[in-house]
Design the sequence.
């Protein structure tokens, strides 16, 4: 059974930083593409933010390029989303996702105040 657990959310002021983590069990992150999505307040949909494939190749939406960075620790089977220069529009619940299994984590709240 695949299980994803996100941590690291919180409340920061604009310009601040947070580092989210996604701990995976039941799946090897080095063999699968893992993604981060976010759901903003009042938005019914989870929108793609970034992903890392099995080779470590990353992709980001334009809105976070240069500010967000994906990394992973294969020994811990964890993937991280380092977020810097945070903006109020980054406020959302952030979710980790396994594409091949279609599994979502429970999400972690990120709140950025102006």
Sequence:
């Amino acid at each position: 059974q695949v299980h994803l657990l996100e941590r690291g959310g919180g409340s920061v002021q604009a310009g601040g930083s947070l580092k989210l983590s996604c701990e995976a069990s039941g799946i090897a992150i080095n063999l699968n593409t893992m993604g981060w999505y976010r759901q903003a307040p009042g938005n019914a949909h989870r929108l793609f933010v970034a992903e890392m494939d099995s080779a470590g190749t990353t992709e980001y939406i334009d809105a976070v390029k240069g500010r967000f960075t994906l990394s992973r620790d294969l020994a811990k089977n964890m993937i991280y989303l380092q977020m810097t220069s945070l903006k109020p529009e980054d406020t959302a619940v952030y979710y980790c996702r396994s594409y091949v299994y279609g599994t979502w984590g429970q999400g972690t709240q990120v709140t950025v105040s102006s």
Summary: The mean pLDDT is 96. The chain is about 0% helix and 50% strand. The radius of gyration is 13 Å. The longest strand covers residues 18-25.
